[in-house]
Design goal:
globular; about 10% strand; 12 helices; three-stranded antiparallel beta sheet; mainly alpha
Length: about 375
Amino acid sequence: MVAAFSLSGLFFFNVSNAQPVGDTTAEVKAKKEEHKLDPAKIILEHVADAHEFHFLTLNKKPVSIPLPVILYSPAKGWSVFMSSHFEHGEATYDGYRLLNEEYIEEAKLDESKFKPGKIFAADADGKIDPSVKVYDLSLGRNAVQMIISCILLILIMNSIAGKYKKGQGVKTAPTGFQNAVEPVITFVRDEVGKSNLGNKYEKYMPYLLTVFFFILINNLIGLIPGTANVTGNVAFTACLGILSFIVIMFSTGKHYWGHIVNPPVPLGVKFIMWPVEIMGIFTKPFALIVRLFANMISGHIIILSFILLIFIFGAMNTGLGWGTSPFFVILSVFIYLIEVLVAFIQAFIFANLTAVFISQAFEGGHEDDHGHGHHDESVVV
């Protein structure tokens, strides 16, 4: 990076442009502010939910796939239509308006209360009316993509199961996509199920395999430009964490709760250990939630940051922008390839740690963790 910046500074020097004739200093400053790049807003818009799948913009016209808008207002009743009627926030439809950056700035709205992508009721002049209550039940891109992932998961697994029922892969060698998925299933069974749960692994394999492939499919789809980063949404990871928490709790026994109520420590230390043990019940699923969310959203933010650095340097100097662009493009591609690997790793870690926590639940304590050859959690993390 030092070498790249040094060469850029050497060969692409700054050029001072004279102020255009007829423009005052205030007008020039206003134009600069108007075209000022805001990386934070661009990144947040990318990782946030939306009412469309936006791929690119050609000649100032967005290329996108609109999604269904489902609204209910006590004053107006139900309204169902496609998000394309909003014209990306430039128009009102059926008495509603989708907020965008331009309208928020034009109407001088409080950005802490009125955020881009939100739908409000609008009056006859197209101005929003916050006093009208609107319940937004729309299918955003996160929800639609999650439905697509569920359909893909069902189709893929049913197709492979059908081949096994016909004897393909049992009496004969697996072929095609079945041959690619079978080693993954075997790996999850051996390295996640058997190694952590021992002879009880078959009971939990349906859940562990479903979680693994569901996260993996969402991770991989999220790497396609224009799609949503579903696993980078804390609501999504929270649902998965809560499901794992329920499975863990249903796997507990008397020994587990006895270890929490009466920890094997001196009496004076028990008062300290009680809140620690109770917190430990909830910190395990919380760790699953935060780990998956943070890892998946950070990769997208890093890639966007490298791409935006090209435009930031270009705003400083055109030559500097062109000179540094190959370097940042290479870095972005490199991080993108790493994200493909991370997609598999994070799915494995979520399933593996879930199995570890389940085994601790029915074994009853940390001192029993060696019973089935558990992985060292510090290594897994």
